[in-house]
Amino acid sequence: ENTLYRFSSDAGNGWLLDTRRLIDGIDVGTASVPAIADLDGDGQEDLVVANSISDDVSDGQLFYFRRGADGFEFQDSTLVDDNLGFSLSPDFGDLNDDGLPDLVVGRFDGTIAYLSNNGPTEDPMFTLISTDLVGTDVGSNAAPALVDLDGDSDLDLVVGESSGLLNYFENVGSRTDPSFLEVIGFFSAFDVGQNSAPAAYDANQSGFYHLFVGSESEGLFYLENSGTPEAPQFADLTALSLNIPSKSAPVFYYGADEFPDLIVGNVAGGLLYFENETIGGSSAPGESSAPSRLLPYPNPADGTVTIDLPIASRNSRTALSVVDALGREQMTIQLSSTVTRIDIQTGSLASGIYMILLSGDDRTIAKGLLVVL
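RE: above sequence
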C-alpha cells in the first residue's frame, strides 16, 4: 500500500504502533476519508479527515485540520461531541441556508447522520439533528456526497456503499428544510466492485457536475455526466490510471488559485494529494504571477481536445505541455504568437487526470485540468 510503519519500544513490553504513514505526515488510523469546507469563515477551505475506528476510543473520529499560512494545521479530534459509530464518511454543505457548512456523516450501518452547524462563523459547533437523514440505510459503509445534481439550488445526495453501487436521493424539500427521496435505479448501471465513495467534480465551477468514485480495490473511477445541469444523465464509468491504494475516497479542494486539487483517503489512514501546481519563474514587472485558466473542450475527452489560448499571452507564450498526475511531461507543442486555438489528440494518453500548462518567459501563463477517458 506504499506505506511506511513506525514502531516504538514499550519499555521492554513489546512494540507499539506509532503510525502507518510516517512520511506523508497525516495518519488518522484506518480508512481515512477526507472532506473539505471553510469551517472558520476565513475564506479558505479547511480539511476534516474521518477514520474507521480509533484504538483509544473504539469508534470512528473526525480530525479537523485548519488551513493556515503553512498548509493544513491540526486543530482537534473533537469537532463532534456525539458518538457516531465507526467507518465514518463525512461531507459538508449548507442544508438550512444559513450560510454555514452543515455536516453529514455516513456510517457502518448504512445510515447517514445530519449535524447542523450552529456557529458562530469562526468557531463551528455541530448539533445532531438526525441519525438517519434519508430514512433508510443503503446496506453498510454509507459514503455521502452533497451536490446540487439537478440544478434546483438545493443539495441532493449521492451515496456510496459497501456493495460498490451508488444511490441517488433527490432533495424534494427546500434550501432551508431538506427532505430526501430515493430515485431508485438512477445509478443502477454502475458498479465499482466494493465500497464506492463518490465525490462531485465541477470542471469549470459552472454548476454542472460529474462524479469521481473511489473503490475498495479497483482504484479511482470517473463517471461522466452527459446531460444538463437540470437533467443529469450518467453514461460512462471509466477507470483512471492512477496509482492509488485500496479503499480510495476522493474529494476536490479548491485552493487560492481556484484550480481543483485532488485529495484521496485510503485504507492505511494517510492522504494522497494531487496538486495543480504552477511551475517555474516569476511574472514580469506589473504582471500577476497567478496563471489564467485554460478550459479544454470536450472535457472529459476521448479523442480530439480543443483549447482556446488567452489573447493576452500571445507575445509571451512559447509552448503548451500536457503533464500527468505524477508531474511527468507527456507531450509538448511549440507555439507561435499567431496561434489562437490548438487541437491535441489524446490517443497516446492513458486514462487519467492531466494538467495542461501554457508556458513562456520561464513561467506558467495559464493552466487547466483535463480528464482523459
